[in-house]
From TrEMBL:
Keyword entries, A-Z: ATP-binding, Coenzyme A biosynthesis, Cytoplasm, Kinase, Nucleotide-binding, Transferase
Gene Ontology CC: cytoplasm
Name the UniProt record assigns to this protein: Dephospho-CoA kinase
EC number(s) on file: 2.7.1.24
SUPFAM superfamilies hit by this protein: P-loop containing nucleoside triphosphate hydrolases
Length: 236
């Protein structure tokens, strides 16, 4: 899905891994702004295309015994409703073990590009569809897209402004180790798979440095919102 229409009311949020993008997005939501989250869309698209991805990357990325909401909730009732003769039609859909998939794609650029070729067009289409719906509100809204620049930048997402959430490397590493329990080599692979943070900063309209407390970040976000003003009258 392509659009020649500029997303005049959209502000893209991006940054490096563990820079605080998701936290910033939650603050914007708490302050009453709509946020389209690329990661949430990506997770849905991943599961919707699980069979294709498992075929491309191997059975090792499939979760074993994926949950079935019907059978897990009450197996006795489900057996009565779905007798063995119909069992084949009730087989649960495969799901992806994202951790195992991550190990593969972050260790091999060609495989990462293959995954992106499957997912990115579908993610892009859904983000644009949701964004075009929000344009009619004539209010600021945000596109939380971690790989905004890597996936095409303004050429693919013609937003009004780009906001990068930045942090120092030490804080970034501490957050990733605490949040994701990754090995140092795995963290390095993920960082190297993205555009360097300084390049993102240079290509952005605004930058918020997130190296302090949650309250500090909220204060900076409130200052940012005051600076851009009303959507139809505010100018950088």
């Amino acid at each position: 899905m392509k659009t020649s229409q500029t997303l005049q009311h959209a502000i893209a949020i991006t940054g490096a891994i563990a820079s605080g993008k998701s936290t910033a997005s939650k603050i914007f939501e708490l302050l009453g702004y709509r946020v389209i989250c690329a990661d949430s869309i990506a997770h849905r698209v991943l599961e919707q295309n699980a069979k294709e991805i498992i075929n491309a990357f191997g059975a090792q990325i499939a979760n074993q015994n994926p949950p079935n909401p019907q059978t897990d909730a009450n197996p006795d009732i489900n057996l009565a409703l779905n007798p063995p003769a119909n069992q084949a039609s009730q087989e649960p859909q495969p799901t992806i073990n994202r951790k195992e998939l991550g190990k593969i794609v972050f260790a091999d650029e060609r495989k990462r590009k293959l995954l992106e070729s499957i997912l990115h067009p579908k993610i892009h289409a859904q983000i644009l569809s949701k964004a075009l719906e929000l344009e009619s509100s004539h209010q600021w809204y945000f596109l939380d897209i971690p790989l905004f620049f890597e996936s095409g930048g303004r050429e693919r997402y013609p937003v009004r402004y780009v906001l990068t959430i930045a942090t120092d490397e030490r804080t970034q590493l501490e957050r990733v180790m605490k949040r994701d329990a990754l090995k140092p080599c795995e963290i390095e692979q993920r960082i190297n798979a993205q555009m360097p943070l300084q390049e993102k900063i240079n290509a952005s309209d605004f930058v918020i440095h997130n190296g302090g407390t949650l309250q500090d970040l909220q204060h900076k976000i409130e200052e940012f919102l005051a600076m851009i003003g009303d959507c139809d009258t505010g100018n950088k």
